[in-house]
Give the backbone structure.
Amino acid sequence: MLAAVGSAVGLGNMWRFPYQTAEGGGAAFLVAYVCMAFLIGVPMMLAEFAVGRRARQSAIGALRSVGGGRWAAVGLLFLVASTVIFAYLSVITGWALRYALDGLTTGFHADAASRYAAIASGPSAVVFHLVSIGATVGIVAFGVRKGIERASMLLMPLLFILLIGLAIWAATLPGAAEGYRFYLSPSLNELLNPVVLQGAAAHAFYSLSVGMGIMVTYSSYLSSSTNLGRESAVIALSDFSVAFIAGLVVFPIVFGLGLSEDVGESTLGVLFISLPTAFAQMEALGRVVGTLFFIAVIVAAITSAVSLLEVATSILIDERGWTRRRATLTSGLVVAAIGIVPALSLGALGIMDQVAAELLTVLGVLAMAVIAGWVMKNPEAELRVGASPTFERLIPVARFLIRYVSPPLLAYVSWIALRQTIRVIAGG
Ligand code: PHE
């Protein structure tokens, strides 16, 4: 479970959620995101759990086993999506590494915007991307699961505490009220905007790590005594709280320090410009808090990266009979090479995020809804294994959502995502 929480809580919460919220009109996005996460995201996580634990195989084999040969292609979709996401996520993790080093060595730069421009380009961005891939490969190859688990157990609570501390500090800023208004009061217009709905759906899946075969892979290692309902509730609640509190930190700072322009200029600006600016203004305290903050971000990012790499690794082990070490090294090398492109070009990074996170993930969730809802035999039986009485009562609800609500909604969202993706690629 800790590994799954580690996968869900990551850069999606700290980096992607605040900027997606900013783009999606603030509170409207937040409302749509919560609905999507709990109505579709959690049932679909349960669907992945049911498939993975019943099949006890990596993503491609699991889909073949519950759905038949044709559905193995969905496993390939998972493989492509997780590889692309891993490639650019590792670039961003590299930046976080640079900021943590800044905090440790020189302190945060007062002009965070130009510092960010320097960090996010050129050969050093490539070097730090490779460092972050190296760390992930090391963890997955040598199977130091105890290492990840111990680190997450220590650093995830630390991340929580730091975020809450930062949120309290942010509340004292002069523009905080304006920030909260933007973040917490929805406008009906935006709520009815299909693009906001699509963005919220895609982000909900991304943030929960569903639609990429990760939960299929992880649940294939679960025992039959695990209560899958409790598992998914803990993952979703931790994931949501971290994202929500990150918003309570970011928006007061953005409005309080008058930084909304930086954010407009670059969607990545929230985490990498607004916060370091705030840390620089807080002087010595800012340096300590900021350094710890970026270390926590790195841990959150690496535990997500580990789960992404595990999808490819476990597929190579199961399908090709490779050793774990060979499988990890090979997939790590492939991702390292792909990641050079987003390391050198922010435009490419944006397009990769759009294609993989917005489109492929949603298609992956749609395919899973069809498999678990209509193809797989009796998925409820798998959910009932190890279930608590409370969860058992909810299984029919999950079943209904997976079977009847998810497919049409996801088909609609996929269609908007496709149009949006074409627009983004054509425009940039
Ligand atoms: N869910 C992770 C996050 O919120 C990111 C991620 C996406 C991890 C896809 C694995 C797969 O940052």
